[in-house]
């Protein structure tokens, strides 16, 4: 073999909660630099929760996605901008059809740089005038992420008709508020 140079990738993590995790996977899933997007639970006090436990609203967890990405191809700032365009950042009590604390919108950060990027982005969105209500999405330190059950993974691919029904109200909202960028 000739001298081959093996590059070692340095991957990073991002965790976003924006309502039903089924709707949060697809916007990130096929972007350059994304290595995986997993549905799961985070932010609560029950270890290894099940979907039924999280839905009971007694675990403190919220549905979220964990994104493993290559920062040389896509940055955390890029991911945050995509995140805003998937949620209603003025609704702290869930997202669209999904109501309750387990659907609250949160940007979780792993370090001070991610925290600063998220806070600055949130402030820019608040100052933009795009929304006439306050931006209430939380920015919190990342906690343990528990991968959801297998049937929740890549739900939009496995169940396109049901995904489309669940995604309809979100899609209409996004079109109304972000259409000029789509």
Ends distance? 47 Å
Q: Classify the beta-strand content into a percent band.
A: 15-25%
Give the strand tally. Answer: 8
Secondary structure: helix percent: 25-40%
The CATH architecture comes to 2-Layer Sandwich
Strand order of the largest sheet: 7-6-1-3-2-8
Number of separate domains: 1
Active site: 20
Pfam family, one: PMSR
Domain Peptide methionine sulphoxide reductase MsrA: 14-163
Enzyme class: oxidoreductase
Descriptive terms for the model:
182 residues; alpha+beta; Peptide Methionine Sulfoxide Reductase, Chain A; 6-stranded mixed beta sheet; two-stranded antiparallel sheet; 8 strands; 21% strand; disordered N terminus
Report on this model:
The protein has 182 residues and is α+β, with helices and mostly antiparallel strands. The chain has a single domain (12-177), classed as Peptide Methionine Sulfoxide Reductase, Chain A (2-Layer Sandwich). The protein contains six helices and eight strands; from the N terminus they run βαβαβαβββαββαα. The strands form two sheets. It has a six-stranded mixed sheet, with helices on one face. Helix 4 (112-128) links the parallel strand 6 (106-109) and strand 7 (138-141). Helix 3 runs parallel beside helix 4. It starts with 11 loop residues before the first strand and ends with a helix. Residues 1-6 have low confidence and may be disordered. This is Peptide methionine sulfoxide reductase MsrA. Residues 14-163 form the Peptide methionine sulphoxide reductase MsrA domain. Belongs to the MsrA Met sulfoxide reductase family. It catalyses: [thioredoxin]-disulfide + L-methionine + H2O = L-methionine (S)-S-oxide + [thioredoxin]-dithiol; L-methionyl-[protein] + [thioredoxin]-disulfide + H2O = L-methionyl-(S)-S-oxide-[protein] + [thioredoxin]-dithiol. GO terms for molecular function: L-methionine:thioredoxin-disulfide S-oxidoreductase activity; peptide-methionine (S)-S-oxide reductase activity.
């Amino acid at each position: 073999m000739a001298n081959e140079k093996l590059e070692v990738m340095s991957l990073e993590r991002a965790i976003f909660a924006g309502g039903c995790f089924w709707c949060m996977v697809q916007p990130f899933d096929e972007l350059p630099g994304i290595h995986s997007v997993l549905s799961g639970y985070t932010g609560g006090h029950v270890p290894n929760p099940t979907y039924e436990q999280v839905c009971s609203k007694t675990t403190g967890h919220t549905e979220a996605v964990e994104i493993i990405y290559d920062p040389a191809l896509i940055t955390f700032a890029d991911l945050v901008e995509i995140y805003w365009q998937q949620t209603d950042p003025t609704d702290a009590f869930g997202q669209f059809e999904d109501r309750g604390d387990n659907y609250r919108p949160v940007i979780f950060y792993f370090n001070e740089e991610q925290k600063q990027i998220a806070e600055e982005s949130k402030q820019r969105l608040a100052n933009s005038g795009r929304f006439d209500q306050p931006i209430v999405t939380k920015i919190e330190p990342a906690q343990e992420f528990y991968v959801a059950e297998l049937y929740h993974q890549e739900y939009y691919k496995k169940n396109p008709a049901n995904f489309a029904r669940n995604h309809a109200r979100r899609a209409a909202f996004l079109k109304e508020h972000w259409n000029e960028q789509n």
